[in-house]
Write a structure and sequence with these properties.
16 strands, alpha+beta, transmembrane, 628 residues, transmembrane helix, 26 helices, four-stranded mixed sheet, two-stranded antiparallel sheet
């Protein structure tokens, strides 16, 4: 062992002892710290989502995004909690064939909380908003707990939580995605693993808890689960206490790893069953009883789908601006951590180690940031938005089951946590150093202001009300959603892997704008959305068995099934694949002729045709006339 390792090990042991002594403080001190987390992170969550917090009962916080889908999913989970139906298989999606919800709805922890709130009397919008804000508060609290586990003081831990709260996949791409906000499980995994590796002979139940935490992450976002496993591996290799006995410890802990694996597999077994063994494997637009999703993923490596790189249009020379301005969704955490890592290295050279265990994370953080940058470019190189056959380092991951389905931008949640820990450690050191200066109060106030500005610039809230989605619950007596109605469009997906991938996320096409060669379709004004919402309610995502069939066949089937469905469920938006309809205006005429309602073309591009029902003309009455 080198002299540096000896110093690091002894410093780490002393720091661990100090931390454990602090943890043995009074129960009141721990409760006070928990209360401070709730108050501080609650205020931060409201600030970063403002003014959505002023409309908790009437408007969905955020820019829309997947909010309608998650509102529907919360209803579905609420019904599952009381045994009304199963969790995964539903016929209310991709009607009439049905779909496996495991592919699109992994926000189960937040949905359970919201479902319980609905059973307690909360409206769907209020339950959704509280679940979203609660997830943000949990992110901050989990990161603060993790920071305390790795040896930071209470003040630094609170700062780490504040940085992390503003980062998980850029707060669900600015609050439009409930599942992406839920990054608390990852912070809990890292903190628990740190503590586990500190112990020479940990009890088996600690491995079981780690397995349960891993399962919690997977049930939130399975991409985050992959990154949580990666975090455990990283911590194992960078932990100074294991440097000289890593292999021996790995062998000695074999029972613990076995317990961890058993607990994790048992906890996610229903999800694995839904993903791999479901009789209805819906993936890539294909609905076949025998093909499993991972097989489809593996085959797609040999037959690349150009749409697979759709989300990564940034050319190489635009990479840095794309990451810096937030379009890569890194949030503030990685950047604060990157600066913090450099500061730790500089301080270490001048004054010795600051926090040895955290210093060992500098290299993994740098590698993670590099992987994040490369992966965000996609499997193939884009030059000025044009796809080329030049492969990028991310391409081999396309052949790995499950990993190929992850979105590489979500790696930012891992770098955000490491960044929050590193940044908080540096700020703690700077805070103490400023306390020795003459104008310490002024300097410390400037430090607080600088951190606040960094968080605000890195995680500025979505403009409001131009992009807010006013989903006001309206009682219509629809049993499938417990008597509450709101807007989810009908979708006819294609066999394109990209189209099938967003088939359960159709509202982005209507609210955020459909990607076109010229840019993005303008967003609907808030007042237009409000008028549409007056008559727009929950609908099935309706599809056909053979998406490539001729227009006449599609029209025949739609004329037979769609009017009857619309007569039972009000629907005021249809998103249609352009390859199925030669002329948009002909589609509008067909809808008006068969459904007896007034429709308008909202957005048209090479992929989607978005039709919306005219405001003020109730869908139910019009479709009832059509059926009769």
């Amino acid at each position: 062992m080198s002299a540096y390792d000896t110093v690091s090990a002894s410093s780490t042991a002393a720091r661990i002892g100090t931390r454990q002594a602090r943890e043995r403080g009074s129960t009141w001190a721990q409760l006070a710290f928990a209360a401070a987390c709730v108050v501080i992170y609650g205020a931060e969550a409201l600030l970063l989502s403002w003014p959505g917090g002023a409309h908790l009962t009437s408007r969905v916080i955020g820019d829309g995004g997947d909010s309608p889908q998650f509102l529907w999913y919360i209803h579905w989970v609420a019904g599952w909690l009381v045994g009304a139906h199963g969790l995964f298989l539903t016929h209310q999606v991709l009607y009439p064939r049905g779909a496996d919800l495991a592919w699109a709805t992994l926000a189960l922890p937040a949905a359970i909380v919201a479902g319980v709130l609905e059973h307690l009397g909360a409206t769907p919008v209020l339950a959704y908003n509280l679940a979203l804000l609660g997830s943000l508060v949990a992110d901050g609290g989990a990161a603060a707990w993790c920071a305390r586990r790795v040896g930071l003081g209470r003040g630094a831990a609170l700062v780490a939580g504040a940085i992390y709260l503003a980062s998980p996949f850029f707060m669900g791409q600015m609050l439009g995605h409930l599942n992406l906000v839920d990054g608390a499980g990852l912070a809990l995994v890292v903190g628990w693993a740190f503590d586990l590796f500190d112990r020479a002979d940990p009890a088996l139940w600690r491995f079981g808890v780690l397995g349960a935490l891993l399962a919690l992450v997977v049930w939130s976002v399975y991409d985050y689960g992959i990154y949580a496993i990666a975090a455990i591996v990283v911590l194992w290799f960078v932990h100074p206490q294991l440097a000289s006995r890593r292999l021996a410890t790995l062998v000695a802990w074999w029972r613990g790893w076995l317990v961890l694996g058993v607990v994790a597999v048992v906890a996610v077994a229903p999800l694995l069953d839904a993903l791999l063994l479901s009789p209805l494997a819906v993936h890539g637009g294909a609905q076949t009883p025998f093909s499993t999703p991972w097989v489809v993923d593996a085959l797609s490596f040999f037959v690349p789908d150009p749409w697979g790189a759709f989300h990564f249009l940034a050319p190489v020379w635009h990479l840095a601006p794309n990451l810096a301005d937030g379009s890569g969704f890194p949030g503030a955490g990685p950047w604060i951590g990157l600066v913090g890592g450099v500061a730790i290295v500089v301080r270490q050279r001048r004054h010795g180690p600051l926090a040895p265990r955290l210093e060992r994370l500098i290299l993994p953080l740098g590698l993670a940031m590099l992987i994040f940058a490369l992966a965000s470019m996609g499997p193939y190189l884009h030059v000025d938005g044009v796809l080329t056959p030049i492969p990028l380092p991310y391409l081999p991951f396309d052949a790995i089951p499950f990993v190929s389905d992850t979105l590489p931008e979500r790696l930012a949640v891992l770098t955000a946590l490491f960044g929050a820990l590193l940044g908080a450690a540096v700020l703690e050191w700077v805070w103490v150093a400023l306390g020795r200066r003459r104008h310490r109060r002024l300097l410390r106030a400037g430090l607080v202001a600088a951190v606040a500005v960094a968080l605000w610039v890195g995680s500025a809230p979505t403009p409001f009300p131009d992009t807010a989605l006013p989903l006001v619950p309206r009682p219509r007596g629809i049993a499938a959603v417990g008597g509450t109605t709101f807007y989810v469009p009908v979708v006819i997906p294609t066999q394109s892997a990209w189209a099938a991938g967003i088939a359960l996320y159709p509202y982005e096409a209507a609210v955020i704008g459909t990607p076109t060669p010229e840019g993005y379709v303008s967003r609907l004004p808030a007042q237009t959305i409000a008028r549409l919402n007056d008559s727009a309610v929950l609908g099935y995502l309706w599809s056909v068995a053979q998406p490539t069939q001729p227009d006449a066949s599609l029209a025949s089937r739609a004329a037979h099934e769609l009017p009857g469905y619309l007569a039972r469920h009000d629907v005021c938006s249809i998103v249609v694949d352009r390859s199925l309809l030669a002329q948009p205006q002909a589609a509008v005429g067909w809808l008006e002729a068969h459904l007896g309602a007034i429709w308008h073309v909202f957005a048209v591009n090479a992929t989607w045709l978005v039709l919306v029902h005219a405001p003020g003309d109730g869908c139910r009455s019009a479709t009832s006339r059509a059926v009769s």
